[in-house]
Amino acid sequence: MKTNKRLCAALCGLLALCMLTVCAQAAGKIDFSRDTGLTLYCADNGVPLSGVRFDLYLVAQADEYGELTVTPAFSIFNVNIRGENDGAWRALASTLEGYTAGMTPDDSAVSDPAGWVRFPTGGRRLVPGLYFVQGRRHTQDGRVYDFTPFLVLLPENGDEDWLYGVTACPKFTVTEDVPENVTRKVLKIWDDAGRESLRPQTVTVRLLRDGEVYDTVTLSAENGWRYTWTGLSGESWWTVAEDVPAGYVPSVSREGVTFVITNTCRTDVPVSPGTPTNPGNPGTPGRLPQTGQLWWPVPVLTAAGLALVILGLLRRRRKGHAE
Questions:
Q1: Burial (CB count within 10 angstroms: exposed 0-12, middle 13-18, buried 19+), residue 255
Q2: Which of 70, 45, 48 is nearest to 57 (CA)?
Q3: So what's the pLDDT on residue 319?
Q4: Angstrom distance (rounded) from CA 49 to CA 111
Q5: Rounded distance, CA 145 to CA 135, Å?
Q6: What are 51-68's pLDDT values in tens digits?
Q7: Could you tell me the strand order of the sheet in which 212-220 lies?
Q8: Element (H, E) at 208
Q9: Quick one: pLDDT band at residue 6, thresholds 50, 70, 90?
Q10: Which band of pLDDT confidence, cut at 50, 70 and 90, is reported for residue 91?
Q11: Is 33 exposed, middle or buried (0-12, 13-18, 19+ CB in 10 A)?
């Protein structure tokens, strides 16, 4: 019986150490000497979309372990890059759409006649990190294409190693009969229960037309934290962005013709107004979402493997004394 227990302990220890080795090798480090690239394919039911412009913005840089740090250009917006699921990343991409107005993209490219878009261009290099990809409105064969912005990790964490060449198919909506005039609305929602004292009296929201500021409005309790624009050109692409209040994290979504801006209060900001704070940035640092092996089992398996090996040796020693 004792022999079986000793053998079981030794085998468990060996198994844990083997799993540790596999996980460590699978996760690996990002090789900064290798080039990273992004390839997009644009087509509508097999018909290539030619001449579509895409802009690439570096939101956060990654270190060799995949830790993310928001770039200065985006840190001023207090965005949260710690996406826990696809829905969180879609919401972040929707939010960033308005904040890139006036910013110079890190790279731009246009789809070729076969519908392919390739980054980087012009001898540039894409540093490892989290990128925001935005496609511009495109008209082809009488149809208007509006591309959904998205986030992409370069390189991407694969099942066994980092993938330095990433390929994606951007999503889009199609409109055949573009109206002459459209209406757009904005609604402000506060997610700060128990911390209402931190809420500002007013917020400034900008309406953007094809990436350029078209109008600026002030929202407050007096107008119900909402506003409506009418008579807007249907041929243009409209979105909104706000001047983010201190201590809040923004999120922008669209429901029909309404842009819903939700400001979530930072939990690390003191409730008492006027107290000096240094909230920092909720997305600095963050971690690349893991689509392959996870890092967290490494220390756990290390401890488990060592404990089981030691247990096996102790039991063997006790038996030696008993004999």
A1: exposed
A2: 70
A3: 54
A4: 7
A5: 9
A6: 999 999 999 999 998 899
A7: 212-220, 202-209, 238-242
A8: strand 202-209
A9: low
A10: confident
A11: exposed
